[in-house]
From TrEMBL:
This is AAA family ATPase. Coiled coil: none annotated. It holds the Pfam family AAA_16. Residues 32-181 form the Orc1-like AAA ATPase domain. InterPro entries: AAA_16 (IPR041664), P-loop_NTPase (IPR027417), WH-like_DNA-bd_sf (IPR036388), WH_DNA-bd_sf (IPR036390).
């Protein structure tokens, strides 16, 4: 950002929040901060693509909020436009002709949204071909056959990144490997997950990339970059950015969720800057190691509605799961029994927590339900999505 741009931003009176999406914890930016070595390692890994070959399958792993998704989505977004209409991502006179004429596709699949083999095959095929891919009236094996024909019987090849593997509602690494085995030689897959390779079921790929948690200084740079792009230039001090990073303890999702909540609170109060009490309130309201909001927002619509109604249930009506379910059912077109089942399933998946009234977290009833995600940020993002 040059000096003239900085001056214009200070002169422009557009309010505290300039670009809400930029500070959102569910958004990724084109050039993630502080992950240069990871980018270089992945580019080295993808180097065979330049010769028309496929790299080996790989596994990218690290803790929640380490920037794994941000790096891979940014990298694939940059690589996709570099494909020519006829061939590989880069053409040089020294590359073999066969390599130059072989088409390479880079496809990103979110396992949270693609929860079945059919959905995963559909997402891959949709990323490879130009025409629309039907979502109904076709069997899974027929979709696999079409994908196999598209890749194996042509010069096309694909590198497929499958994100969020091994979570409570997503496929395991071994299940992904089995689903993509019929396409061996036609595509290479990059699984992205949190588990250490030694904790995975089956035999993980030999090619592995660890993405460690952010150091506090680097995470402060992440927060500063997002704040500079999405807020008024004077909205946040460098010390506040460092404080957010130190509190988040290496988790970029939690840091950005607290940033979003603090800015939203300050904006609602008509402030020109984020105050320290906004930061403190946001940190207190954000659970440590919170469930990523991108995970919550990919839940089925009825489950999201139940979570949204949960936020408005009075404390007096939350002494047990049954009472909470009845209170939620009064505001949605679902039965109390269905809501109760959803709450138990959401608790099993870690989205909410059942807390016994005696203070322990073991056993079932009687227990109240507590969200494990940043509630104020979810409220804003949910309402923005449902209200257009």
């Amino acid at each position: 950002m040059n000096i003239d741009t900085r001056i214009r931003r200070r002169q422009d009176d557009a309010g505290l929040v300039r670009d809400e999406a930029t500070i959102s914890p569910v958004s990724h930016i084109a050039d993630p901060v502080g992950r240069g070595p990871t980018f270089e390692a992945l580019l080295d890994y993808l180097d065979p693509v330049l010769d028309g070959a496929l790299p080996p399958d790989a596994y990218v792993w690290g803790p929640a909020g380490a920037g794994k998704s941000a790096v891979v989505t940014a990298l694939f977004a940059h690589l996709r436009p570099r494909r020519s209409r006829r061939g590989s991502i880069v053409h040089t006179a020294t590359r073999p002709r066969a390599a130059r004429e072989r088409s390479q596709s880079f496809v990103y699949v979110d396992a949270r949204a693609a929860t079945t083999d059919f959905a995963r095959y559909h997402a891959i095929l949709d990323g490879v071909v130009d025409e629309s891919v039907p979502t109904q009236g076709v069997r899974t094996d027929a979709l696999l056959d079409r994908l196999r024909d598209t890749l194996c019987r042509s010069s096309r090849r694909a590198v497929v990144a499958v994100d969020h593997v091994g979570e409570s509602e997503t496929c395991s690494l071994s299940a992904l490997e089995a689903a993509l085995a019929p396409l061996d030689g036609a595509l290479a897959w990059v699984a992205i997950g949190r588990d250490r390779p030694t904790d995975l079921d089956g035999d993980p790929p030999a090619t592995r990339f660890e993405v460690p948690a952010y150091e506090t200084r680097t995470l402060a740079d992440v927060v500063t970059t997002r704040a500079m792009a999405g807020l008024d230039a004077r909205a946040l001090t460098h010390q506040q950015c460092r404080d957010l990073a130190a509190w988040a303890d290496g988790d970029a999702h939690d840091a950005l969720a607290a940033l979003f909540a603090a800015a939203d609170r300050a904006s609602e109060r008509g402030r020109a800057r984020v105050e320290d009490d906004d930061i403190a309130h946001a940190c207190e309201a954000t659970p440590r190691h919170a469930v990523p909001l991108s995970q919550v927002l990919t839940l089925a619509p009825n489950r999201q509605r139940v979570l949204r109604e949960l936020l408005d249930v009075r404390p007096a009506d939350r002494s047990s799961v049954e009472e909470t379910a009845a209170a939620i059912a009064a505001g949605v077109d679902l039965s109390a029994g269905t809501v109760r089942r959803y709450l138990y399933e959401l608790a099993d998946d870690g989205i909410v927590e059942r807390v016994r009234t005696d203070g322990s977290t073991s056993g079932r009833p009687p227990s109240r339900v507590e969200p494990r995600f940043p509630t104020s940020v979810f409220r804003r993002l949910y309402e923005a999505e449902t209200q257009g």
